[in-house]
Amino acid sequence: MKMDAAALTAFLERDFAQVAEQFAVERAEEGRLVLRLRVTALHLRPGGTVSGPSMFGLADVAIYLAILSEIGPVAQAVTTGATIDFLRRPAAKADLLAETRLLKLGRRLAVGEALLFSEGQDAPVARASMTYSIPPDPAQGAMPA
After folding, report:
1. What is the pTM of this model?
2. Locate the Thioesterase domain: which residues (predicted)?
């Protein structure tokens, strides 16, 4: 069951209301997704830049939603591995955009990558690669031990 940007937004608002207002799904299509982090003072660190945890959170949510855009609303899919490279200082007064794509989407594991950009800039500020565990579909029965 594929999910479009509107369905992903509704899912976030329903199941992750505590963070939903920080993000906006800009586009979701064919294993690719663009997610916006609405940067506020909460996301800044001393020195006037977006914090690493905020950038990591954007990448994590973006890749998670890219997976859900393909498999449907599986709230229990979880991050099992993550790597992030911080490439340059993001702008403090600009939203961040995560451009994601899925590299592998299997029955139990998914791998995606995200490039993060300060809005209006061409060079990425970070690159992330993440792996997610997808729980078995209860309709398919339990996996053999």
Report:
1. 0.91
2. 47-122
